[in-house]
Automatic annotation (TrEMBL):
<dbReference type="InterPro" id="IPR039544">
    <property type="entry name" value="Tim44-like"/>
</dbReference>
<dbReference type="InterPro" id="IPR007379">
    <property type="entry name" value="Tim44-like_dom"/>
</dbReference>
<dbReference type="GO" id="GO:0005743">
    <property type="term" value="C:mitochondrial inner membrane"/>
</dbReference>
<keyword id="KW-0809">Transit peptide</keyword>
<comment type="similarity">
    <text>Belongs to the Tim44 family.</text>
</comment>
<protein>
    <recommendedName>
        <fullName>Tim44-like domain-containing protein</fullName>
    </recommendedName>
</protein>
<dbReference type="InterPro" id="IPR032710">
    <property type="entry name" value="NTF2-like_dom_sf"/>
</dbReference>
<dbReference type="Pfam" id="PF04280">
    <property type="entry name" value="Tim44"/>
</dbReference>
<dbReference type="GO" id="GO:0051087">
    <property type="term" value="F:protein-folding chaperone binding"/>
</dbReference>
<keyword id="KW-0472">Membrane</keyword>
<keyword id="KW-0999">Mitochondrion inner membrane</keyword>
<dbReference type="GO" id="GO:0030150">
    <property type="term" value="P:protein import into mitochondrial matrix"/>
</dbReference>
<feature type="domain" description="Tim44-like">
    <location>
        <begin position="1"/>
        <end position="82"/>
    </location>
</feature>
<keyword id="KW-0496">Mitochondrion</keyword>
Amino acid sequence: ILHISDADVRETKMLGSAPIILVMFRTQEIHCIRDKEGQVTEGGQDSIRTVYYQWAMQLMDSDELPEEESYYAVWRLREMHQLGVKALI
């Protein structure tokens, strides 16, 4: 990932007693897939794409956390959707 931008909270809701936040953002990523020998099989080192994501994050209940971590709010990634891809280079 080269860059993250346009982060926007799209929705907040409750799932039982746990809050859920839906966040949309975009990244610029290098698209380069290699096989086990290291040969490029898809994309390349200079293949840059803009990728659009939506994440749903849920606040974890302090009962689910180790005691030393329960002092801080901890968010769990519940769902991740890739909404689209646009090639830049």
